[in-house]
Structure formats: structure tokens, C-alpha cells
């Protein structure tokens, strides 16, 4: 297995010989556009997810899970979510030359149409692994991996793309972010938990190159010292043009500091099977709507919808919905007798995007209990 051959991005819209259901950027495409819609880089994990646990594991006992799934994880969650929404996606990552690495490479390149020209296989480096246990609507994770090898793709010169998704690290600058922004790439950023406990916005130096910042409520309040997530969102617009704060079961709140526009959309109530990767799917939905130039409230609503659909499937990356799942949800909502008119109005913008007739799309890969059947599935 070697790095894939560079391409123009046209192949992304075909998977296993079938055309993608929807191209959300069709009206925006023109000759001379960047070859990629979104570029991202990071670490790919093999995720092993246990679901159907009645409670958290107890020390000294053995717990049996009713469900289990394996899928690419880490940055693969975001890459897959973007690709399934019809965006031409380029990923730079290191892959081990073990069976886990081969499975993840195949699942992303062949299964999802993600371009891996900027990725590479590293001999002798085993793939990082995360075991995730889902119970009571939450998850607990245990990960193992060695330090990324020096040969890991260094994205000092990222491919030209409309947008990029960056995960900011406190106290660290990633040169590729400034370089991408200088070329006109719109950078969307999220952030993980600050293990240093400083929660200092000045430590997120690359935020100055970003168009949007999408933390959760706890992260936003800690970074801004605000006493509520909505106040935190407004405070963040002093550092980045667009702030979107996810509010868990309450939905999300967004502020555009350039126009003063705000949007708050409640979450869609669903029975969550596995929340792994839902935050990544939310970001992917918001990026899609932004590149398509939708109104702010529609972008937030679409992001919340895609995240809600994802938690009803096993696994992180392979739980991400495609347009066929979105269309099925919309038809179901319209068919429910007594459906609240405001709910129908909120997602009416989907009408112009979704196929008018029910189609039979190429089935999406889903997380499976083992990777052993990958070559014959």
C-alpha cells in the first residue's frame, strides 16, 4: 500500500461506480476552483466501540456488551462525515503497515472516496487504537498508540482547498494553518480539553487565521470566563469572526461577529445508540452549509441534524449520515401526523436539495464487529 495518486477531486463524487446523491456545492462550482473542498490532517485511529452496556464497567467484574463495531476513528470521523455530505475531501495522515492500517486506508480511500495523496504508510509503526464504551448516553474511551513517527505527513504545504478543518492545540502553532489561510482557504477550528488547565485564548495562536471556532459549551465558557455559553459565544467573536457553541441536548448557538447575526437551534430528540464522533459530524455539517452559503440558522440546523442522525448508528466515522439518510429523515418527518408546523418550517430548506423521488443509493459502510471480513464484504 502506497500513497494514492494525486487527482483533481472529480473522483470523489463517484463511489463504487455510482454517482453521489447530492452535490451541495453544485451551484458554487466554477472553472479554476480549488481541486478540494476541504483539507484536513491528523491521526487516524482504529476505533473499537462497545455499545449496549447497561452501566459503566465496575472494577473487578466482567461486563458484556450487546453490541460492538469497528471503524476508522480520530481524524477519520471528520473526513468521512465531509465526504458523505458530498464534499471533495483530502486527508493527510500516517497509517501503520499492520492490518489495522490497511483496513483504515481501504475504508477511507475505496469506501468513502477520500483522497489520500497527502497520506503515507509508515513501515513498522502500528496503528493507534481506541476502545470506546457507550452507556447512559455517554462514552468512556481508552486509547493506545506510540508517538507519531517523524515520517508522518508534515502539512507545511497543504493542497489548495476551499476550506480546512483544524484542531487547535494550546501553546502550539501549526504552520500549515497560516499557509492555508494565506491562500484563501477558510479555516474552521475546534479544540480539545486543555490538560494544562490554563484555558488561555492567547495560547490558541492559530485562531487568528480561522474563520470559525466551534467549541462545546464547557470549553467556550472556560476560555472566555463567561458564566453562560451564549455570552461565551459573543466573547469569542472578539477573536474569530464566527463562533458556534454546541449546547449538548439544548442544541447550538452561533454568533457572526461581522454582521451581529445570531442563531439558536434546538437539538433533535433521538434515542442515542453511540455518541462517538457526533461532534465531528456537527462540524462537517456546518462546514458544508457555510461553503454552500446558506443562512446561519440553516447551517446550525443542518449541523445538528447530521449529528443527531449519526448517534443512531455504531461507531464514529462510519456512523456519519449521507444524503439518502437525510432524505429518509425528511420524508419521515413530513409523514408524521400532527407534526408541529415550526419543525417543518425549520428544515424546509432541505426541499431544494434532496432528490424528489426515493432512490436506492449505494449502501453506506457501517461499523462491524470485526475487520476480518473486510476483503470479502
TrEMBL record:
Keywords, sorted A to Z: Kinase, Transferase
Transmembrane segments: none
MF terms (GO), sorted A to Z: kinase activity
Organism: Streptomyces griseoruber
Source organism, top-level taxon: Bacteria
Protein name: Sugar kinase
SUPFAM superfamilies (UniProt xref): Ribokinase-like (SSF53613)
Residue ranges occupied by any Carbohydrate kinase PfkB domain in the UniProt entry: 65-321
Amino acid at each position: 500500500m502506497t500513497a494514492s495518486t494525486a487527482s483533481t477531486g472529480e473522483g470523489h463524487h463517484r463511489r463504487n461506480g455510482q454517482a453521489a446523491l447530492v452535490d451541495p456545492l453544485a451551484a458554487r462550482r466554477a472553472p479554476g476552483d480549488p481541486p478540494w473542498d476541504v483539507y484536513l490532517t491528523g491521526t487516524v485511529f482504529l476505533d473499537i466501540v462497545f455499545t449496549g452496556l447497561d452501566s459503566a464497567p465496575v472494577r473487578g467484574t466482567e461486563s458484556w456488551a450487546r453490541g460492538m463495531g469497528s471503524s476508522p476513528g480520530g481524524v477519520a470521523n471528520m473526513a468521512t462525515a465531509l465526504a458523505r455530505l458530498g464534499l471533495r475531501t483530502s486527508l493527510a495522515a500516517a497509517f501503520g503497515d499492520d492490518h489495522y492500517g490497511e483496513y483504515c486506508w481501504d475504508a477511507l480511500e475505496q469506501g468513502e472516496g477520500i483522497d489520500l495523496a497527502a497520506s503515507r504508510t509508515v513501515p513498522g509503526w502500528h496503528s493507534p487504537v481506541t476502545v470506546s464504551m457507550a452507556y447512559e448516553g455517554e462514552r468512556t474511551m481508552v486509547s493506545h498508540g506510540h508517538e507519531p513517527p517523524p515520517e508522518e505527513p508534515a502539512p507545511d504545504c497543504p493542497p489548495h482547498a476551499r476550506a480546512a478543518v483544524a484542531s487547535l492545540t494550546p501553546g502550539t502553532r501549526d504552520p500549515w494553518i497560516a499557509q492555508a489561510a494565506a491562500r484563501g482557504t477558510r479555516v474552521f477550528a475546534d479544540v480539545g480539553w486543555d490538560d494544562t488547565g490554563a484555558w488561555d485564548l492567547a495560547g490558541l495562536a492559530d485562531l487568528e487565521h480561522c474563520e470559525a471556532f466551534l467549541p462545546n459549551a464547557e470549553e467556550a465558557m472556560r476560555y472566555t470566563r463567561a458564566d453562560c455559553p451564549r455570552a461565551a459565544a459573543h466573547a469569542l467573536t472578539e477573536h474569530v469572526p464566527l463562533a458556534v457553541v454546541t449546547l449538548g441536548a439544548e442544541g447550538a448557538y452561533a454568533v457572526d461577529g461581522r454582521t451581529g447575526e445570531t442563531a439558536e437551534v434546538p437539538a433533535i430528540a433521538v434515542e442515542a445508540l453511540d455518541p462517538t464522533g457526533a461532534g465531528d459530524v456537527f462540524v462537517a455539517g456546518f462546514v458544508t452549509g457555510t461553503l454552500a452559503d446558506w443562512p446561519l440558522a440553516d447551517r446550525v440546523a443542518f449541523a445538528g441534524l447530521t449529528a443527531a442522525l449519526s448517534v443512531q448508528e455504531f461507531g464514529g466515522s462510519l456512523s456519519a449520515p449521507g444524503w439518502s439518510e437525510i432524505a429518509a429523515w425528511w420524508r419521515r418527518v413530513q409523514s408524521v401526523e400532527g407534526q408541529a408546523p415550526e419543525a417543518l418550517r425549520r428544515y424546509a430548506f432541505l426541499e431544494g436539495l434532496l432528490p424528489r423521488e426515493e432512490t436506492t443509493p449505494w449502501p453506506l459502510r457501517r461499523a462491524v464487529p470485526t475487520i476480518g471480513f473486510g476483503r470479502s464484504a
